[in-house]
Design goal:
By secondary structure, this protein is mostly helical. Among the domains are: about 1-40; about 105-175. Helices cover about 65% and strands about 5% of the residues. It is built from three helices and two strands.
Length: about 180
């Protein structure tokens, strides 16, 4: 039995050494896995097409354009007001330049309308002055006509007495006719 006891003791010792080595290997693998997770693995998320309970939001821009720079990365947490992307300002600059040119053209057009309005107002004033001058000329012509008629009547009355010559009567008749 002594031999069986030494054989059992040797087998037990060998088994205990193997179990200790296995336990040490399990502890070493667990420590290495924990160190990997703490130092590297926790910074990345990966999935094999699994679903997560994450909040998703539809993002729409206030203005359209070409994206010049993306300021966030995938799975990064963002808050309200954070800048997510920068849109290329070239289109906005072109639209601003076009709007400014359109404004300048409209200002010039309005100034042209105002100048035309002033010109037409001056023409109306000039026509008013022409009308007044024509009215004055008409009044003067009517006065001349009345005076010529009175002169003609006076001379016709005096022709019979011989106080007025035929030539003077003819001039009076021509003045009245004119």
């Amino acid at each position: 039995m002594n031999q069986d006891t030494t054989l059992d003791t040797a087998t037990r010792r060998r088994r205990n050494n193997r179990l200790a080595a296995l336990a040490l290997a399990v502890v070493a693998i667990g420590g290495a896995s924990t160190a990997y997770w703490l130092l590297h693995g926790q910074h990345f998320v990966s999935t094999d097409n699994a679903y997560t309970a994450a909040e998703l939001a539809q993002i729409t821009p206030a203005v359209g354009g070409t994206v010049a720079e993306v300021k966030v990365s995938d799975t990064q947490t963002v808050k309200k007001g954070d800048v997510l992307v920068v849109i290329d300002p070239t289109d906005a600059r072109l639209a601003l330049a076009f709007a400014e040119a359109e404004l300048d053209r409209t200002i010039r057009r309005v100034q042209g309308y105002q100048a035309t309005d002033r010109s037409l107002a001056e023409q109306v004033a000039a026509h008013g002055a022409d009308e007044k001058r024509a009215a004055a000329q008409l009044a003067a012509a009517q006065a001349d006509f009345e005076r010529a008629g009175i002169d003609l009547k006076r001379r016709e009355a005096l022709v019979g007495s011989g106080s007025v010559s035929g030539d003077e009567l003819t001039r009076a008749q021509n003045a009245y006719a004119a």
